[in-house]
Amino acid sequence: MCVPTPASTLVVPVDLSSGRLARHFLEEHWCHQHSSAHLDQAKLLFTELVTNAVRHAGPPVLLQVECVETDGVLLSVSDGDPSPPVTTVADPADLGGRGVHLVELLSRDWGVRHHDPVGADGESAPAKTVWCRLGRRDPEPVPQRGGHRTDRHGARPL
Ligand SMILES: [Zn+2]
């Protein structure tokens, strides 16, 4: 259990260093009250999503990690391309490209949010965000202590 934290954000360059930067960023900002198994899953998912964003989308590529609820971690990868994430099956020899399939397998919940492609100040802003939530799939019943925390993100797949 942990107190939900403010999101940590990193902008990564659109090149092959981004996967390594993403893993390093997660290790630095990981809240250690979560299972280390989730950190391993998070690294895998972040690497895949960032690789997808770098290969198929474009700048700006932003990463975000945030504790959202008891035992829940929200990972977000934003990029400059409004098209949905690429879901083609990768060549077996290819190290990346399985992003969306892995996200479906490993995350508890995931989705895509679209944004206004141009920021209010005219600078380029991310066009979409692929987010996924990690945590226990079958939470044990927790004694109620008066009211549920509302989901600040309000985002649900479809
Ligand atoms: Zn936490």
UniProtKB/TrEMBL annotation:
<feature type="region of interest" description="Disordered">
    <location>
        <begin position="135"/>
        <end position="158"/>
    </location>
</feature>
<feature type="domain" description="Histidine kinase/HSP90-like ATPase">
    <location>
        <begin position="13"/>
        <end position="117"/>
    </location>
</feature>
<keyword id="KW-0067">ATP-binding</keyword>
<feature type="compositionally biased region" description="Basic and acidic residues">
    <location>
        <begin position="148"/>
        <end position="158"/>
    </location>
</feature>
<dbReference type="Pfam" id="PF13581">
    <property type="entry name" value="HATPase_c_2"/>
</dbReference>
<keyword id="KW-0418">Kinase</keyword>
<dbReference type="GO" id="GO:0005524">
    <property type="term" value="F:ATP binding"/>
</dbReference>
<dbReference type="InterPro" id="IPR003594">
    <property type="entry name" value="HATPase_dom"/>
</dbReference>
<keyword id="KW-0547">Nucleotide-binding</keyword>
<keyword id="KW-0723">Serine/threonine-protein kinase</keyword>
<dbReference type="InterPro" id="IPR050267">
    <property type="entry name" value="Anti-sigma-factor_SerPK"/>
</dbReference>
<dbReference type="InterPro" id="IPR036890">
    <property type="entry name" value="HATPase_C_sf"/>
</dbReference>
<protein>
    <submittedName>
        <fullName>ATP-binding protein</fullName>
    </submittedName>
</protein>
<keyword id="KW-0808">Transferase</keyword>
